[in-house]
Specification:
The protein is an alpha/beta fold and 394 residues long. It has helices at residues 6-13, 94-101, 124-130, 151-161, 172-185, 202-214, 232-249, 260-266, 284-289, 294-301, 338-342, 348-351, 375-393, and strands at 43-58, 63-79, 83-87, 109-114, 117-118, 134-137, 220-224, 252-256, 269-274, 277-283, 357-358, 364-365. The protein contains 13 helices and twelve strands. The strands form two sheets. The protein has an eight-stranded mixed beta sheet, with helices on both faces. The chain has a four-stranded antiparallel beta sheet with strand order 2-1-4-5. Strand 7, helix 7 (232-249) and strand 8 form a beta-alpha-beta unit. The model is unreliable at 1-31 (pLDDT under 50).
């Protein structure tokens, strides 16, 4: 789309001022998935049994002595037009999953299809054309921009690589016009295209990164923690820009984040990852109201409340996250699981890896005892934890 409407540019530029939390100023996300003729949501991205292992080298001859199971047998569907949130602790494989589905990382096994086309089977020429349909917004607004290139070349580089007789992007005048259009769409001035990255603030750099990702008019965009490196007030501005652009250009987003409050307002569905696997998938309403995996419960309990007068009890997980090079047998979470302890350490938690299964209403959880996760069980676990902490203090 060569011409960006002035209305879209005005909406993107109209960003709020200082806010109390990253989620402030945002409206709860409404379901936006496209529906096919038979009434079913249309799947845009379909990842099946996706694996990405990184080799560990050792010895004088640098032989492979092990594997880091960064993404291990993850299956996930993202519907056209929706914003799917992917959350979890650092190192759980969120970013690796996002980079692998768009082939910035080579998959070890599994399949990925975008609108029915096998992404992993594409040759170099076909993959180059597929890049028009899938892009990424990187986490670091400083490291992701080449400091030696002006903004016009940073955004226009992808256009030049995809130039053909049809789009005329090989012409400098056509390319510069499109760069200016997308700068205005993200709330920046057209004349900024002559500046270099060091002349911008962090929020402005991230807007440039967004413009670069959208310049090719993609259908699917991976947002790799696009606001985590920004100040709180700037976070809400970037999120509002993304929200407006998603509606304007009918984008499908994979939104990778740590901030669960932002995910609650920005996404329609959420996937929770732990140690390379997907442990729960649900709509935002289901996940935040009735989480069905013990790990999800612990994550949600860690969300801080904006009112300091309210004392929130947190369910603290014991121990450290196991090494992704040597994950525990059975359920990978059982070494830190409060429900495992409460139920008397069932043997199948140690010996059998739970599959991601439907636990009602389309909500999926990879837990043998997901039906036992309820408010009373969480309250008992929190009370027991507080009692142990009190006894240790005395």
């Amino acid at each position: 789309m060569d011409q960006i409407s002035s209305q879209a540019a005005a909406q993107a530029a109209a960003t709020p001022g200082t806010v109390a939390t990253p989620a402030a100023g945002l409206e709860p996300a409404a379901p936006a998935a496209a529906v096919s003729g038979d009434g079913q949501a249309e799947v845009l991205l379909d990842a099946r049994n996706l694996k990405k292992y990184f080799p560990i080298y050792g010895g004088i001859l640098r032989r492979v002595v092990g594997q880091v199971y960064a993404v291990d047998d993850v299956s996930l569907q993202i519907y056209r037009g929706e914003t799917f949130g992917l959350v979890g602790e650092s190192g759980c494989g969120k970013t690796t999953f996002g980079r692998t589905v768009i082939r910035l990382e080579k998959a070890t096994a599994g399949s990925v299809s975008l609108d029915g086309q096998d992404v992993l089977a594409l040759n170099d020429r076909d993959l180059r054309r597929m890049r028009r349909r899938m892009q990424i917004i990187f986490q670091d607004p400083y490291g992701s921009l080449n400091p030696r290139m002006p903004v016009s070349d940073i955004i226009g580089e992808g256009l030049l690589a995809q130039a053909d007789a049809e789009n005329q992007w090989g012409k400098r005048s056509v390319r510069d016009k499109r760069v200016g259009d997308y700068l205005e769409a993200v709330g920046l001035r057209r004349e900024y295209s002559r500046r270099y990255p060091h002349e911008f603030s962090g929020g402005q750099r991230q807007r440039i990164g967004i413009a670069r990702a959208l310049a090719l008019d993609p259908e699917f965009v991976v947002c790799d923690e696009p606001v985590s490196a920004l100040d709180v007030s700037i976070q809400s501005q970037i999120l509002n820009v993304l929200s407006e652009l998603r509606r304007e250009f009918h984008l499908t987003l994979l939104f990778i984040a740590h901030n669960l409050s932002v995910v609650q307002y920005f996404c329609q569905r959420v996937g929770v990852m732990y140690l390379g696997t997907l442990v729960e998938v649900a709509s935002v309403e289901q996940l935040y109201a009735t989480p069905r995996h013990p790990y999800t419960v612990a994550l949600l309990s860690a969300i801080p409340l904006p009112d300091p007068r309210i004392r929130k009890k947190r369910l603290v997980l014991k121990g450290d996250v196991p090494s992704p090079a040597n994950p525990p047998s059975g359920c990978r979470f059982h070494t830190r699981c409060w429900l495992y302890e409460k139920l008397g350490r069932p043997e199948n938690c140690v010996t059998v890896e739970p599959a991601l299964r439907d636990v009602g209403g389309g909500q999926q959880a990879a837990c043998h005892y997901a039906e036992y996760v309820n408010p009373s069980a969480v309250q008992e676990a929190t009370a027991a934890q507080d009692a142990v902490a009190t006894a240790a203090a005395d």
